[in-house]
């Protein structure tokens, strides 16, 4: 029978088919853990005297609470330190592999899994973190779960679930220069809304998706949850195999061949039917930016701040009113006139090596705008090492930006990296919710290249806007490229 | 998990859509390693505003939250459900819930009842015209009753059964442990293994 990619991976993992309205029992190949959503799950196991069933399919890292400076010193915030220490104790007690702060494999859980080669096509991945959808970029079925489910997977390596619906998101055409994966997904969310993907697995397909690197595909799948989807997926292809080959945990020799043979079968059949379909024209896309307080409130950067009257629907109109008030924006203002205080380049959405390269390509030889604080936070210690090997950090420092240690950092401000009340930030992260980056902070979601251009000009900008300001023509007295 | 059949309590109209889990409980409260005592974090950003609904009597004693569409979006934090539960909420009514939130609620005995947006609007009106109106959430009959009005709500049949029986999911799954073991024996050898540890160096 013809099937979609998601249906194929699902049926490969059914331990027991549910009958009479019961859910299926789905096998989980890989569980990723971090310090925030795991302590209560470990406690649950302890209370019931249950072992962690498959430590060899479980890996933990420290990311949400970890500081991005002075990582050799004890963590100053006592509750953060306790949470990290709790993870270390639990990992020891249950025999779970953990990459701690200071370890070369430490980093954001969704950066670490793929870079170790643990995330593979056709597997199921869960984590107590909604951005687990990231791993779908490999053709894995990957989704975020709550702590009760984390405990359930620890104890049984399965989850009772009803099959997800499927939605095809076809992105035809070619992206223009300065437009990237982030703009595709922001445009998708603006189109279908924050609840549009509810109950669905989104499968991204089409020419523009095929042309993306694995990093770009991860950016897109990462934000599937912002459209309310259970997961995002992209069929594996030569780009996927090339990324995986030779990674520490990728299969080798005969097993590699066997795996690739199976992976090649993981695509939606031509005659498969999706429950819903959406088409996006890549040629028409511009850099996108959000103006409001949910990721669906986004527009092309050339647009103006909308007014409540631009929305036909009562709910959207009142949401826009609230958002404009919180964001302190006046309808009709060109988005490019919005000045920011901070640029945050990082998060599980955009902190991989390619993201850093794209950012540096824009800022190369320039100085940051004097009124803007620029923070660059690599997604993992491994990404940081790679960037330093390429000399990217020197260009970032010469630009006037801060070059930090790996972690979730200002994406959610659980560590000291936070916005002050009223501060405005252009952020490559994934959520522009009220207070997400710090109480009273205001977030505009952007791509790495828009982050770079904004850091140069001080207002929301695309790389195209820098054509008027050639390299070396530093604004406001900054010395040109120091390196 | 405690069994849930029917609950009656003061309804709280929260006229906002897209109430994300960062609003339900901000990240700063997620540093705790316990599973209870999260009531202080519930809507903590909004509760600083004296005019916020939970700062008003009798709503501060409410136990049935009536919210706008797309409730519980964003982060997977189960802390959002713990915070609602610890504050005293037993049910949330909305026209649409985020999937992960709804799943988490079902594990913790919090009923996430889905009604049409028109019904939500009617209930808001009833609650605002008569503050303190008690709402009954009858899981067995799949009904919400507010004043004279009766509404049907949707809830996943399996979740409803589990909530009414107060059943622990893990215990249910472990009854099929033989099936899990048999499945594991069939898994291909190329599947990822986190141990023994391999790294780039």
UniProtKB/TrEMBL annotation, chain A:
Top-level taxon of the source organism: Bacteria
GO molecular function: 3-isopropylmalate dehydratase activity
Keywords, comma-separated and alphabetical: 4Fe-4S, Amino-acid biosynthesis, Branched-chain amino acid biosynthesis, Iron, Iron-sulfur, Leucine biosynthesis, Lyase, Metal-binding
Matching Pfam families: Aconitase
Cofactor note (record): Binds 1 [4Fe-4S] cluster per subunit.
Catalytic activity: (2R,3S)-3-isopropylmalate = (2S)-2-isopropylmalate
Top EC group: lyase
The protein's annotated pathway: Amino-acid biosynthesis; L-leucine biosynthesis; L-leucine from 3-methyl-2-oxobutanoate: step 2/4
Cofactor: [4Fe-4S] cluster
InterPro entries attached to this UniProt entry: 3-IsopropMal_deHydase_lsu, Acnase/IPM_dHydase_lsu_aba_1/3, Acoase/IPM_deHydtase_lsu_aba, Aconitase_4Fe-4S_BS, Aconitase_4Fe-4S_dom, IPM_dehydratase_rel_enz, IPMI_cat
EC number: 4.2.1.33
Residues annotated for [4Fe-4S] cluster binding in this entry: 348, 408, 411
Domain Aconitase/3-isopropylmalate dehydratase large subunit alpha/beta/alpha: 7-458
Assembly, per entry: Heterodimer of LeuC and LeuD.
PANTHER family: 3-ISOPROPYLMALATE DEHYDRATASE, HOMOACONITASE, MITOCHONDRIAL-RELATED
Function as written in the Swiss-Prot or TrEMBL entry: Catalyzes the isomerization between 2-isopropylmalate and 3-isopropylmalate, via the formation of 2-isopropylmaleate.
Family membership noted in the UniProt record: Belongs to the aconitase/IPM isomerase family. LeuC type 1 subfamily.
Name this polypeptide is given: 3-isopropylmalate dehydratase large subunit
TrEMBL record, chain B:
HAMAP family for this protein: LeuD_type1
Task of the protein: Catalyzes the isomerization between 2-isopropylmalate and 3-isopropylmalate, via the formation of 2-isopropylmaleate.
EC number from the UniProt entry: 4.2.1.33
NCBIfam families linked: leuD (TIGR00171), PRK01641.1 (NF002458)
Lineage: superkingdom: Bacteria
Family: Belongs to the LeuD family. LeuD type 1 subfamily.
Gene3D superfamilies: Aconitase, domain 4 (3.20.19.10)
Assembly behavior: Heterodimer of LeuC and LeuD.
Name under which the protein is recorded: 3-isopropylmalate dehydratase small subunit
UniProt entry keywords in alphabetical sequence: Amino-acid biosynthesis, Branched-chain amino acid biosynthesis, Leucine biosynthesis, Lyase
Signal peptide, first to last residue: none
Organism lineage: Bacteria, Bacillati, Actinomycetota, Actinomycetes, Micrococcales
InterPro entries in the cross-refs: 3-IsopropMal_deHydase_ssu, Aconitase/3IPM_dehydase_swvl, AconitaseA/IPMdHydase_ssu_swvl, IPMI_Swivel, LeuD
